[in-house]
Design a protein that fits this description.
Layout: E1 2-8, E2 11-17, H1 22-33, E3 38-44
Antiparallel strand pairs: 1-2, 1-3
Length: about 80
């Protein structure tokens, strides 16, 4: 399953799409919402746990949600 964050009418929408891969999910989004739908992100999720699968692509866009910013802790 693919979890997509898309923009619809100026609002952020999070939708789950049953698809084999991200390209199939994009096609489904375009069929359902139109070709001009702005896709913000696509992530594979576990069907059983509904959680995001770990991705070793080195994405650095994951944050804790803290508005002041993340704190990097070091072992001294």
């Amino acid at each position: 399953m693919i979890r997509a964050e898309i923009e619809l009418g100026g609002q952020l929408e999070v939708i789950d799409i049953k698809a084999k891969d991200k390209s199939e999910a994009i096609e489904e989004i375009w069929r359902t919402y139109g070709l001009m739908t702005y896709i913000i992100s696509l992530r594979e999720v576990n069907d059983e746990t509904n959680s995001i699968k770990s991705d070793d692509t080195g994405e650095s866009d994951r944050t804790s949600g803290d508005e002041k910013g993340d704190i990097l802790q070091t072992n001294e």
